[in-house]
Amino acid sequence: MLKKLVTITIILSIVATGCIDEMTVEEIAKHTQEKYETVHDFKATMIATTNVQGAEVIDEIEISIKKPNKFRSEDKKRGVITVSNGEVMWVYDVKKGEATKTPLEGSGDLPDFDYGQIIKELLMDNDVTLLGDEKLFGMPCYVIEATPKKDTYITGQKIWIDKKYWLPVRIETDFEGFKSSVEYTNVSFNTGISDGEFEFSPPAGVKIIEPETKLPNHVSMEDAQNNVNFTILNPSYTAGYEFNGATVSKSGSVESISLIYTKGRKRMMITQTTSPEKHLLP
Asked: Which pTM value belongs to this model?
């Protein structure tokens, strides 16, 4: 009799454990969002890897975020520091000794490397499937596959969500022409980051660039095209963001066009320029 009771107890324990861990992908996304809502600030090292036709590029960027709209990133490899206090954004190119100051409309938004934005839109824009469990960096993770509901250049994503902290520690994206991945390591939550970390004072001798606006904000694509000497490329995929207007700017002999796209309260800007140099900003 005692043997039977022990056997039944073990079986019930196994069944109960299995039920706890058998979560749906919607429940996983919900837990991740709920965890994100408790986060006031966080720091991490973001490792971005891109692979284009076998050529791999790895960038390691230190990021800091403080809700609702302050952020800082430092790409030591490229020598670029981006700082925003929610009202003004600075982009400091250490190697060039130049700092670009850009006033932000409204209160500003958090950048794309804020993982909360990724999870929030996961179920909205994709069909998602739970692939199973896997250890990453020694941490048990749920592995989710996301397939866009509409035809886009993105053919699929895989996301590893840490079971302990409900953090997407790795995101792989498969484009038609190349693959990329983003990993978050050395993550810390709610450490009380000072507002001073999101202020920027240009070092002595640094050239300050404040783009001169030639046209009012949010002009039409046609008006913008009539005021630049290059053909504006209209992106075919904008991840559900809708065109809200354009801004034409001039800095010295360089013209640039910023296309503004919005989705709800979120804002995305795509900038095109006549500059012969290619700049990659975090």
From this structure: 0.67
